[in-house]
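Dig into this one:

. . .
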Amino acid sequence: AIENICGRTHEVNHDAIPAACFTHPEIAMVGPTEEQAIERAEKEGWTLGKSQGSFRANSKALAELEGNGMAKVLYNKETGKVVAVHIIGIHAADLIQECSNAVAAGTTVQELSMMVHTHPTLCEVLDEAFKGAVGMSAH
């Protein structure tokens, strides 16, 4: 609002605003729900892709005895752009920020799959999902 008052036009991309629930395990998301993404894809004429990463195979999560959880990446198969990410697991609220930035910037799963994710950290759960979206393996 202030930017618009000052004469700098700015539209908020509501799909890029992350949300988190500080439960145990944490839950975080950015973008539409899977059902909403399916509807959007059908309405706009593109194919929705889905890829998942698991906390079960993540050494940091296992060291913290928090191996339950997953990250789901929804993306446009034609463009590769990230549409939404849903995470349930330890520190999901921290992990969602990379995904929020990806949605805001129009980053593709192809680009994200080639970015280095620190080892051993929880962000490798996302790395697994990004790589899975393009047919690569993180392990």
User: Anything to note?
Assistant: The helical segments are 2-5, 34-44, 59-63, 92-105, 109-113, 124-133. DSSP finds six helices and five strands in the chain. Residues 11 and 45 are 24 Å apart (CA to CA).
